[in-house]
Specification:
Blueprint: E1 14-20, H1 24-37, H2 47-50, H3 66-69, E2 78-84, H4 90-97, H5 102-105, H6 109-112, E3 118-119, H7 141-159, E4 161-168, H8 185-193, H9 201-211, E5 216-218, H10 228-237, E6 240-243, H11 250-263, E7 267-277, H12 280-285, H13 288-299, H14 301-306, H15 312-315, E8 319-326, E9 335-343, E10 349-357, H16 360-380, E11 385-386, H17 409-423
Length: 437
């Protein structure tokens, strides 16, 4: 990866945020941005909007907001477009998702009615519990990819946008392993022409975005831009990419708690996690093939954080189990329940119970905003390829070949802020004593 010399080119014009999927997450994000623009809400949960960044020594007392420190696109200059298998506009889709209260949606209705989904590139073979009428005719995969590229150009022209970013907010596809078509861009494009079944719809969106020079983030556990073919294409086209699978509820808690246990050298014997949720995501994950993709990203965080190879007595025999259960009465109000069996001094046992009654889309919406703004910033800064510094937002961070995924939320946070410092010409902060820095 490369980055340009300072200063970072300034933002100008409109930034179009494209969301494959205009369901609960995307409409909560779009509605939230508009509510903030109208002065009716605050961007709670958004690092890019609310968090400060320390510059230099602590005694210098330089702590600007991140959005004042680097030239992010302001919320006033964001425009929105997306694709969905249902034809509902953003207002009707948000009302159907029932994440936001009717009294909060009502002042946004005029604007949300203007955001209408384009026809999706969709194949029910990859998402078995989802179907809808607003889909492109079943053509070859090459034709679908080219149609998505045209959609991007048309949406940018309609919005009057000078730049765009794409953030996948669609459903979890069935679990796919990399195949021969993913080894190079030549083999991938040959796979498009041959309608290779190893190329899922989410890969078509990623390919279309990268070919159009549009930064891409993958918010689901799908095999999407994380293949040698599309990584190579992102480098060649100078496009930043990041992923995958938004870190929202239960996994967010794991990446907060597990580093604390490890820091205090507390042993863990078992970690049992179960979830109930009733939104469209829950229904789709009720299919075993889709759940397999999610299970891989949700289950992988503990080993990397705890390093059992270095601390075998503490973590080698950890039993880790993850379950997701579809429970329609809950809607988007997910409950994540964790039982953690830990051991302390002399291996005496203790237990921790966590019951997180969260709202998936409320936690995911500010992630979509931050990724859109930070990827646009990265693009203007000349960064291309995999943006590991955005691992903070993902369950299964997209990393360079040979790199180990970092799941510790606090290490991810330091790395993200230090990357922003370096991009803007400031020194990274090491948190050493000021006389040593």
């Amino acid at each position: 990866m490369t980055h340009s010399a300072n200063p970072i080119p300034p933002h100008s014009g409109k930034l179009l945020v494209l969301t494959p999927g205009m369901g609960a997450v995307a409409t909560t994000f779009i509605a939230g941005v508009e509510a903030i623009r109208q002065g009716n809400a605050q961007p709670v949960g958004s690092v890019s909007q609310l968090q400060t960044i320390r510059l230099g020594h602590r005694s210098e007392n330089r702590n600007p907001l991140i959005r004042d420190f680097v030239p992010l696109a302001p919320l006033s200059d964001l425009a929105f477009a997306g694709w969905d298998v249902y034809p509902d506009d953003a207002y009707d889709a948000a009302a159907r998702a029932q994440v936001l209260n009717p009294q909060d949606l009502s002042p946004l209705a005029d604007f949300l009615h203007t955001v209408k989904p384009m026809k999706a590139a969709f194949d029910p073979a990859y998402v078995k519990r989802l179907d809808g009428p607003n889909v492109k005719p079943m053509k070859g995969k090459r034709e679908l990819a080219e149609a998505l590229r045209q959609d991007i150009r048309d949406a940018m022209a309609k919005a009057g946008a000078s730049r765009a970013v794409m953030v996948w907010c669609g459903s979890t596809e069935i679990y796919l392993r990399p195949a021969a078509c993913h080894e190079s861009i030549e083999s991938f494009e040959a796979g498009l022409d041959a309608n290779d079944p190893a190329i899922a719809p989410s890969q078509l969106y990623a390919y279309a975005a990268i070919m159009e020079g549009v930064p891409y983030a993958n918010g689901a556990p799908n095999l999407s831009a994380d293949s040698p073919a599309l990584e190579q294409l992102a480098i060649e086209r100078g496009v930043p990419v990041a992923g995958k699978d938004f870190k929202t509820g239960q996994t967010l808690m794991k990446t907060i708690l597990a580093p604390g246990f490890k820091a205090r050298m507390l042993a863990i014997s078992g970690w049992f996690s179960t979830n109930i949720l009733g939104n469209r995501d829950g229904e789709i994950l009720d299919d075993p093939d889709s759940f397999k993709a999610k299970e891989v990203t949700k289950s992988g965080v503990l080993d990397t954080i705890l390093q059992p190879e270095l601390y075998p007595h503490l973590y080698k025999d950890l039993y880790h189990k993850v379950r997701i259960n579809y429970y329609p009465p809950r809607g988007d109000a997910k409950e994540g329940w964790d039982n953690i069996d830990i051991r302390g001094w002399l291996d005496y046992p203790m237990q921790i119970k966590v019951d997180f009654l969260c709202r998936d889309s409320i936690l995911a919406a500010p992630i979509v905003l931050d990724l859109a703004l930070f990827l646009d910033l990265a693009s203007r800064s000349g960064r291309k390829g995999i943006q590991e510094w955005l691992s903070f937002y993902f369950k299964s961070p997209h990393t360079e070949p040979g790199h180990v995924q970092e799941h510790d939320l606090f290490i991810q946070h330091v790395r993200m802020k230090n990357t922003l410092r370096v991009m803007a010409g400031e020194r990274p902060v090491t948190h050493l004593d000021e006389h040593e820095e």
